[in-house]
Amino acid sequence: MSEDKSLLRPEWRQWLAENLALGVGPEEVRQVLVGAGVDPALAHEEMEAVQKHPYYQACLQVARHFGWLESLMDVYSELRAQDGGRQLEVREHLTPEEFFGRYYLGHRPVVLRGLMKDWPALQKWSLSYFRERFGPVEVEVMMGRDANPEHAAQHDRHRTRMPFADFLTMVESGKETNDYYMVPRNDNWRHAGLSPLREDLRAPEGLIDPSLQADMMTLLLGPAGTVTPLHHDNMNILLGQVMGRKHVKLVPSYERHRVYPHRGTFSHVDAGKPDLMAHPLFAQATVLETVLEPGDMVFLPVGWWHWVKALDVSASVTFHHFLVPGGNTHLDAPF
Length: 335
Known about the structure:
Elements lengths: L9 H12 L4 H10 L4 H13 L1 H28 L7 E4 L3 H9 L5 E4 L7 H4 L2 H8 L3 E5 L16 E5 H9 L44 E6 L4 E6 L4 E7 L2 E6 L9 E2 L3 E2 L20 E5 L3 E5 L4 E6 L3 E6 L16
Parallel strand pairs: 1-2
Antiparallel strand pairs: 2-12, 3-4, 5-14, 6-13, 7-12, 7-14, 8-11, 8-13, 9-10
């Protein structure tokens, strides 16, 4: 293999090849490179070299094979847009039959109100309540997230155990931060210490398995400023907001080619502040938004991309054991 003498940084060469293969116009690609400080002559030279490289030609053939699928997904997106697909519906007093028929089986997200009105957690949960009842309990949280842009994908590096009271002290500081967060992967409800908190919840009648076993739900707790980056789950999720507010953005599963997938279920796009110069196809994505208030739930269909930011000190729970024949629908993990 010949020696690589390119003057363009490897990450930019990868970006260049990826965007050209995805069908972004050469002039648009060139403008991004030049805008990032790349010499125009070097940008032109690299674009010529990439497009002639046999590896890129093979990549282009693969991209063409998938092109028909993306075209079909675009058609589906347009059809869904004509059927309300560019609005996030908000529903109250929804029957299980309508939920499963229109949303679960229809692969549509929806904000649900009124399903948590009988939850003791809405009146009881607070940082002081957690401290009084569970302060000495050892919990696992994710720490040091700010120092690692890949913290969500590299979660095992951030696992830290501490008394719940110590974590609550950090949350109580009032600091807006994404540096520490109790997330579903911490799996704290599988341990006896926090299990009594499940008594403060109720399964939405007719939607979720009422037994509420520890492996049927997850807990999220953290300060204002915590961010779950744009990603998708490999099964359907129902998220209930108990404390504080959360800003949620969603992108349809069938617009995967517009979110620059990364590490399988994650995206290169910062949905909070998208860089459309670096990720121009995201400008074409359908982005649905809502702010969840305490007592709101949102249904996240399998494969739908979502980004979440806590606007206040926040506690949420998620459920995934839906009352459907055969159980939840799972998406094979992408490579």
